[in-house]
Amino acid sequence: MSTLMQFLVYGLQLGSVYALLAIGYTMVYGIVGMINFAHGDFLMIGALSTFFLSQAFSSFAVNGTYSGLIVALIIFVAMVGTGLIGVSVEAIAYKPLRNRPKMSALITAVGVSMFLENFPRALPFIGPSPRSFPMLFPAKRFQIQGVMISTTQIIMIVLSLVFMFILYNVVNRTKIGRQMRACSMDKDAAQLMGININRVISITFFVGAALAAASGIFYASIYPQVDVYMGGWLGTKSFIAAVIGGIGDIRGAMLGGFIMGITEILATSVNSNLGYAIGFVILILILLFKPAGIMGKLTIDKV
Amino acid sequence: MKKIYVVLSVLVLLTMLVSVAAVSAAETGETLKIGVVSPISGSAALAGKYIVNGVKLLENELNAAGGVMNNGVLYPIEFVYEDNEAKEDITTNVYQKLIYQDEVIGIVGPDMSKCILAAGTIAQSAGCPAIGTFTTNVAVTQVGDYLFRACFIDPFQGQVAATYAWGEGYKTAAVLYNNADAYSKGLYEAFVQSYEALGGKIVETQAYSGADVKDYNVQLTKIAAAKPECVFMPNLLNEVPLQVQQARANGITVPLIGGDSWDTPEVAQVAGAENIKGSVYISAFSPDNPDPIAQKFVNDFKTAYNGDVPNSNAVLAYEAGAMLVEAIKNAKTVDRAGVRDALAQIEGLALPSGVVTVGEDRNPIKGAAILQYNDQGVATFLKNVNP
Amino acid sequence: MKSIIRKILPLIGVVALYYLIMYLKSIKVMNPYHIQVLMFAGVNIIMTISLNIVNGFTGQFCIGHAGFMSLGAYGASIVTTLIFGGFSVAPNLRIPVFLLGLLAGGLVAGAVGLLIGIPTLKLKGDYLAIVTLAFGEIVRATLRLIEPIGAARGMIGIPPYTNFAWVLFFVVLTLIVARNFIYSKHGRACIAIRDNEIAADAMGINTTKYKIISFVFAAFIAGVAGGLYAHVMSFIQPDTFSFVKSSDLLVYLYAGGTGSLTGSVLGGLLLTVLPEALRAFGNLVNWRIVIYAVTLVIIMLYRPLGLCGGKELPFLKINRKSLYEKSIFSRKTIHPSEISN
């Protein structure tokens, strides 16, 4: 029983990374209607820039640990920085294609992803080397009824829930949130109502990329190794999570992320050799029974 | 008296001129090209960096010497570096390019068995010698008689690890391996075979795949529950550090044993000294090896690359290049076939990792080193194992 | 008379192309390296055409196409190497064995395509995409556990039967078959589904049936391409056919232009050759993939519909313009902002 609980903790920990990343996917998809394959690389940029920032701030560290204020500052700067990179990627590579078929933007995103991975790899001072991620959060571990939990895990799971809660309320209760929802329903009508869709899309990319940076920081805090290729497969996984949850729906993305994480861990615990394949089989089954994802509603196409 | 000086100096000048003329008369042959194949981009890019750096060191040495002397003819050497992205089909393209377009005399690399297994037949049918650097799979040199390698083979390494574990008195062991990776799987099988033959017991075997998401907690929880006396983790270098951390976090305190993929400074840096101390791995090379050739190599490497310590990738790439150069030096005819024959006859060549003799099946006969991480997380030389 | 010339001329062109390349090879302008890159390009062209049938002409969204390729590669290699013994086949039996292998590869892929197509093709868009992605990963994860075919170590000793002539032959064959399929009754039904599924349904087209037909057909072609690939490489292993391969194929397809066979040929050819051509700048080896990525983005920015989106060379086209107009992927919606400008 305690082993099962332990696995659930690991599942939640992995799931919260997927969930945060999946939110970015889902927001961009809901509003712009494109799959941003470069989203996973925003995670990498977030983690890598946090690594370099914490090196820059290393004089403030005491015995390798940073004070809460500095950590908050580092995370803030990394998130804002990655958000701005997200906005500029949108402006340079996606905006010209906005009224074009969504596949063009998708292929451009593949190109952007290759660029974001290989450009830092080719830079001499970054290169392909994996780096040890600094300890931003206190790593104290304790046991509750045979289940081992570390403070990092708790901070991470709680913080990602907080981020999701804030975002959910922003989207549902603020003016900009209402504009976002309007854009996702009908861009043209939204524009007719006086909404500046360029601004909304830029903000969406900013938020999405900033959340990806946060998930990168969290991911690197529990799996403390960063390199330029870390985002690729994580991005694909959380894209799957977003679809499982019902793409376009923020609650669905969160749910999908946690389901992905827990499924993956439990499938591995059944048989480590088959775990990888079993995880995907379960995902296919979910989609067969809920063809529009868990939270998604089947839309009726009008002729 | 003055006249004598004048005459003498004229004589000296003349002899100098003559000797200079003699040197230039020791004709310069055509420039020979050597292809270097490594994953410069892609997930294995770190290995590619070390391989290129290792070979560049050899290139600098050869440039200083002007080339390779064969039978009184000086052949300048040019290296052609190509990126195979750690993909098999790209490797076959690169091999074709090097063989038919650049017309190289021999190829160094790549480092992965799967890549050279795909491209090997091209080198074989073209009759171009190719030396894999880190291609430990037995099947590699069975592709044909133009294929060589600079490293030892999987069964030998697995056997060394098993013998070490048994010799340390570990009666039970657990294994965590990557079932998507031929290298990891090969070492796992070789280890289990040797270890069980010695009388040891494997108490838990856990696998993983889809290695890009680096969560091994489930597997390690199960291994911890089985309470082994040591854990064998023959995994890729970008996976090992997190496995070490997560193993310790899951309460596995027993020694961890790794393969030669652990041999890169980044592993300990990322894993952390307090986690990795006491762990042991098998390696082709130890930077602590007191042998003067090894020390010269380590120092040259450090000077050339801002204090970076060479790893097995760098050493094996350097050695593969050095074997090729040695073969060019001794070849009866300076062409691909001649170089191949000379490669097969290399005997007692002193290289950084030891004295190398190419055996019958074109595998080098060379020993392995066992290294252990000390409390500072620095890998220190424990002992040498000879085949 | 004119139509006969129209049919024969392209074939003469292909034969001429073959002899031109063979001539260039004999006078050493082209070497085996160039030929091999062209062979890979050919395999990629076939794969892209296959993907085009599903994504471009039927309007579905498959992103795990490498899974079918791997099934074909393994299916064909099992026949030629494990059943008939690879290199020990008598020389006069090699071609029949090779063709039998390719057929087997195609059939295996097609059968599996049918198996997963029936339950999943009722899903749409991104949901179908995820299922195909998951399918590709399941195939890969399963193949690396099967010992008789080498598991993760891969399969060695596959005889290199594929040569340039075979690749060219199969590219041409695929083009002809695909073109005839697209302009057949079935193909028109597929295009109707792409353009408007509900309308197609209302016109009495059994949409599920036609989606499955095009999916299985494409899987069969992908299987044959996988077989060709295995016999170029003479070594295959499961990880070759990962999601990376699938997304490469998507790039070839959409950069070339969907709904256009010409686009598939151009996309597969150019984007296979480009990263190799960049090797000519030897000292840029570190930046090669970066340059490739930038080129790809620039292509998409300046040709958003792909290089030949919605356009077709004359001999791949039937005189019915409407088939190419207003496809989902090539439709350019006029946006209010453009009117106000």
Description of the molecule:
- With 303 residues, chain A is mainly alpha-helical.
- Helices cover 71% and strands 4% of the residues of chain A.
- Chain A has one domain.
- Chain A has a two-stranded antiparallel sheet. Chain A has a two-stranded antiparallel sheet with strand order 2-3.
- The radius of gyration of chain A is 19 Å and the shape is globular.
- Chain B is α/β, with parallel strands linked by helices and 387 residues long.
- In chain B, helix 5 (154-167) packs across helix 6 (182-198) and helix 12 packs across helix 13 (336-344).
- Chain B is globular.
- The model of chain B is unreliable at 18-25 (pLDDT under 50).
- Chain C is mainly α.
- Chain C contains 13 helices and two strands, in the order H-H-H-H-H-E-H-H-H-H-E-H-H-H-H.
- Chain C has a two-stranded antiparallel ribbon with strand order 1-2.
- The chains are: A mainly alpha (303), B alpha/beta (387), C mainly alpha (341).
- Chains in contact: A-B, A-C, B-C.
- At the A-C interface, helix 4, helix 7, helix 9 and helix 11 of A face helix 5, helix 8, helix 10, helix 12 and helix 13 of C.
Summary keywords:
heterotrimer; A: 303 residues; mainly alpha; two-stranded antiparallel sheet; 4 strands; B: 387 residues; alpha/beta; Rossmann fold; seven-stranded mixed beta sheet
Alpha carbon gap, first and last residue of chain C: 51 Å
Which residue ranges of chain B are poorly predicted, with pLDDT under 50 across at least 5 consecutive positions?
18-25
The figure for the number of domains of chain B is: 2
Shape of chain C: globular
Query: How many strands of chain C?
Result: 2
Structural class of chain C: mainly alpha
**Count of individual helical segments of chain C:** 13
How much helix, percentage-wise, in residues of chain B? 40-55%
Instruction: Give the helices and strands of chain C as they follow along the chain.
Output: HHHHHEHHHHEHHHH
> Widest sheet of chain C: strand order?
1-2
Strand-and-helix sequence of chain B, N→C? HEHEEEHEHEEHEHEHEHEHHEHHHEEEEE
Oligomer: heterotrimer
- The mean pLDDT of chain C is 87
**Share in helix of chain C:** 55-70%
Give a quick summary of the entry.
Chain A is mainly alpha-helical. Chain A is 71% helix and 4% strand.
